[in-house]
Amino acid sequence: MPSLKDLRNRIASVKATQKITKAMQMVAAAKLRRAQEAATAARPYSRRMAVVLSNLAAAMEGREGAPALMAGTGKDETHLLIVCTAERGLCGGFNSSIVKLARERIEQLTREGKTIKILCVGKKGVDALKRNYGKLIIEIVDLRAVKQLGFGNARDVADKVLHLFEAGGFDVATLFYSEFKSVMAQKPTVLPLIPCKIEAGGDKLDLGGAIYEYEPDEGEILADLLPRNVAVQIFRALLENAASEQGARMSAMDNATRNAGEMIDKLTLRYNRQRQAQITKELIEIISGAEAL
Fold first, then answer.
1. What is the pLDDT of residues 211-261, one digit of tens each?
2. Distance from the first to the final alpha carbon of the chain
3. Which residues, including other chains, have CB under 8 Å from residue 271's CB and lie 6 or more apart?
4. What span, in angstroms and rounded, lies between the C-alpha atoms of 129 and 99?
5. Are residues 118 and 137 in contact, defined by beta-carbon separation less than 8 angstroms?
6. pLDDT tens digits, 39-67
7. Contact between 191 and 179 (Cβ < 8 Å)
8. CB 166 within 8 A of CB 187
9. Is the alpha carbon torsion for 16, 18, 21, 25 positive or negative?
10. How many whole angstroms separate alpha carbon 198 and alpha carbon 220?
């Protein structure tokens, strides 16, 4: 049975931990607002980019000379998985849910006999995948030194992907990230990146009956927009991840703070009972000694 001193030390330790988790919850709440605004602001641009590409692709349907980023290499042998996770932990199941989705895809592709390459954006994804799939990781993007995510960070990742594609390094690229829904809900998401997935029957641009021609032609516009779209989709994934990470951390630290409070209550009750028992024992000894005299 622990002594009263041991119980006091443990209560003090849990209280110190509770202060830390409460502070982390407040910091995450402050960061969440900015991250959520950035993620929400990026969604309309990303959706509009998809609509423009869809209209351009429809105009080129049946023609030859479609850009490789849209048509693909014609093969489905080598897959590049871009796994975006956080740089830090203590955010509940945020990182593990993304990694789980990536593992399922790796296992599926392995059964099909495909060649797999992994590009990790974020330290936690590397830590989770390197044990079983370390040989498949070809590059790691470290964003720990980045204080504020910008389009330049996404452009750097996109350039690595595009250079690898141009060198014939893969046939299909898939992006893994977590879409922010709310503080309590983040949805692990798989996004086909290359070749560009054109949604059939999606939203169309309302031109009010106007007749137009492309200048330059659709092929040249797509050749410029498709690489930009890769960077846009990666940027959106990074922003969604940033908001999801803070939401998950806020929820996890709130749970940890409440659990610490419950533990403090239990330890305090135990301490008081043990102290009362010790006082009662001392009183009995005093009374017994007085009666003996």
1. 656 666 667 777 788 888 889 999 999 999 999 999 999 999 999 999 999
2. 33
3. 4, 7, 8, 11
4. 7
5. yes
6. 998 888 888 887 778 777 766 665 666 77
7. no
8. no
9. negative
10. 17
Tokens 């989705």 found at:
101
Tokens of 35: 């991250």
| DSSP symbol at 177 | E
Residue carrying structure tokens 């922010």? 180
DSSP codes, 128-142: HHHHHHGGGEEEEE-
Active-site residue numbers? 91
CA distances from 128 to 115, 148, 207 (A): 20, 25, 48
Sequence-separated (6 or more) residues with CB below 8 Å from residue 179: 186, 187, 188, 189, 240, 244
Name, in order, each residue with C-beta under 8 angstroms of 244's C-beta and a sequence gap of 6 or more: 94, 178, 179, 180, 186
With a CB cutoff of 8 Å and minimum separation 6, the contacts of 134 are none
Alpha helix positions (H), the chain: 4-59, 68-71, 94-111, 123-133, 151-166, 218-292
Residue showing tokens 């749970």:
255
